[in-house]
Amino acid sequence: MSRDSAVTETEDSAGRDSLMRLLGGGASAVDASVPPVAFGLVWVFSERSIVASGITAVAVGALIGVWRLTRGARPLAVLLSLLAVLVGALIALRTGQAADFYLIRVASNAVSGLAWMVSIAVRWPLLGLVVGTLLGQRTRWRRDPELLRAYGRASWVWVGQYLTRLAVFIPLWAANAVVALSVAQVVLTWPLVVLCVVTSWWVLRRALPADHPGIRHARTTR
């Protein structure tokens, strides 16, 4: 392996790892997956009691929140995660439909997908903002046309992630398939995020010309 290839491989690995850490790593996967699974399990074994399921999900979410705080998680991120569980439980209690517990997750994925698409359309791709922040570049990457274009292309992978979730969640929600929604929440959380990170990084690197110095070295034109 040449020196340049080794440097590129190291850069890619460091970038993917950094992005994983920004997303919260495995802790965020637990945060997103366990409360919905707890809701689904209690719903099945409590003769479909939404009250028992909601209380359990919120309690589990609170315990996970405390655990994440002890591991140095950002309090705001923990609070928002717990709030999502609480709102989901309240919606299900209000409508009397257990599947509505997952509506907040459907909505969050729809909003996230729309935000990523808008960011690409206005030439402020969110992947560039995330990675630029990680690398301490702020917005210098936007003055590199090649890097801007590459971030735009790679950001579509993230749009695909949210659309994939919606394509699975919406039919299951419409069918009131609570157990299937719980399973889908697990499968489409961490495994999908890992695939998204790896794929978007591959697209980003492929979109840059061979003579480009890499994402850490934006070639500014002004």
Structure description:
By secondary structure, this protein is mostly helical. It has one domain. 76% of the residues lie in helices and 0% in strands. It is built from nine helices and no strands. The chain crosses the membrane at residues 22-44, 50-69, 76-93, 113-135, 156-174, 180-204. This is Intracellular septation protein A. Keywords: Membrane, Transmembrane, Transmembrane helix. It holds the Pfam family DUF3159.
Roughly what fraction of the amino acids lie in strands? under 5%
* Helical coverage, percent range: over 70%
The low-confidence runs, each spanning 5 or more residues with pLDDT under 50, are 1-7
When the domains are counted, the total is: 1
Roughly what is the average pLDDT, rounded to an integer?
Answer: 86
- Structural class call reads mainly alpha
The topology string of helices and strands comes to: HHHHHHHHH
Give the helix tally: 9
**Main β sheet profile:** none
Essential attributes:
222 residues, single chain, mainly alpha, 76% helix, 9 helices
Concise summary:
InterPro entries: UCP010219. This protein is mainly alpha-helical and 222 residues long.
